[in-house]
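User: Before I run my own analysis I want an independent prediction to cross-check against. Here's the chain; please return only the structure tokens and, at the end, one sentence I can use as a sanity check.
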Amino acid sequence: MKYSGEEKKIGGLIGALRAILVLVMAFMAYGIGIFPALFIAHVALAWLDISNPFHLLFFSILLVVEYLVLLFSLIFSTAFFINVFNLKYREGIYRKTLDDKMAFKFTAYFALYYPTYKLINLFVIPPIKSFYLSLIGCKIGKNVFLAGEEWLDPCLLEIGDNTMIGGRAMILGHIAEEKLVLSKTKIGKNCLIGGETFIMPGVTIEDNVVLGSKAMVPKGMTLKSGKTYVGIPARPIDRAK
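Assistant: Structure tokens:
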């Protein structure tokens, strides 16, 4: 079947200028974020004698500290650009071109957020992850545990209190069809989302739901409160069996 939708493209002059702006914002945000870690390394290396075993031990510890410095610097730097330039996008159906303002926001937001998020996931640190996601527009409740999952659209995602999301779960707020479709995905309170699940845009998961590992929830589906769902596509089963 021939594809009849529009191709993702830069667009005209406005789109080209916006593409340059995305690159400039990304370079500035990451340049500012990397600077503190590089400065500390520069000062330390001027003092350290790597041939000295004690200095080498100190340098090894410093590398771990440098990771944390880099991580928090990038968290605040990218969150600053996302919020100051109002890059959080809204639900709707938009053209897949940078001439479209919301498509531009979507592209710029992803360019700033995603590399930092992957750096956080290098060592799974749930409290830091929740903190960063809340800074860039995700609504996260209390006592939420996030493993090594993929959140591709934090500003379109909500998650309730006491919910656990397993490793390698992928949760989306967008899908590229004939147009760019942006839709909120909501996960309620006291839910258990299994590892390697795939949750598409527009899904609502009500309170006290269990979603089995490797399940796939199609776009726009509602998982009813108190039920257990498994399979592809997700279907309810009797918990007693």
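Sanity check: The first strand starts at residue 92 and ends at 94.
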